[in-house]
Structures are given as C-alpha cells and as structure tokens.
C-alpha cells in the first residue's frame, strides 16, 4: 500500500535510517537519446527550511556533465537485502562556490544523515581542490519502502 504524505517530517526518520545504513545509491541520468546511464555514488542529505536537500561530491566527467546539462532530472535509488529502499527524484545542478564546497565537505566528514558519507580526503585534497565538483540535489519526490511489509510512503515538494 502506498500513502502520500504532505510533510517531509513524516518520512524523515525512515529516510535517514535507510540512507544512513545503505550509504551507496545508484544514480540514474539519461543521454541525448533518452537511454539511462547508472553509476553508484554516495550523496549526503540535510534538511533546510523543513525540506530535504542533497549534495553530491563528484568528478565533473564529460558524460555526467553532458547528461545533467541536457536533462537535470536525476534519480538516486537505495536498496538493501532487507528490501528497504529509497527512491529520490531530484533536479541536479553544479555549484562551483567554494563556501558551498566547504559546507559539503563538512557534511561528508560528519556523515549526513548519520552513516551516509565518507572522508572526501580519500579522493580530493581539500574543498578548494579543482578536481572536486559539487552537485546540488533538490528533491521533488521521495519514496521510502519498508521491506518487511512493503509499506510505501511518498513525499512530494510543493514546487
């Protein structure tokens, strides 16, 4: 059974629990011929003004950059052996601002939500490393599914 919820706080605890435990998400973009492309990445999430907001520290690869430039609608999918899952539909945008990169660096370092993230120093020297790129992930729909009974709850943004 699927239930739509009006307020993100109704799914926030479950979202944080599953994302924090699973950590790795499959990111889906589409190419110029509308063919999907997936890659496994680790975004981090926070709550800003009552709504979820995600960030992805990543490399600015030609394929990923072209896909986002053509169609910024992206999906992140989390799943574990318990059959707990989270699907997050977002609008993605590159953010080159150093203050934002520092903020995202800190979110990854402390893990956000708890358990999600890793020390970015494994791949980049510091927030001002020219190879570090940050993507802002503005969710417009989140679905959490509890594997034990397949209870599904969906939140959608008002915008």
From TrEMBL:
Domain named Pyridoxamine 5'-phosphate oxidase N-terminal: residues: 12-143
SUPFAM superfamilies tied to this protein: FMN-binding split barrel (SSF50475)
Coiled coil: none
Entry superkingdom: Bacteria
Pfam families, A to Z: PNPOx_N
Protein name per its UniProtKB record: General stress protein 26
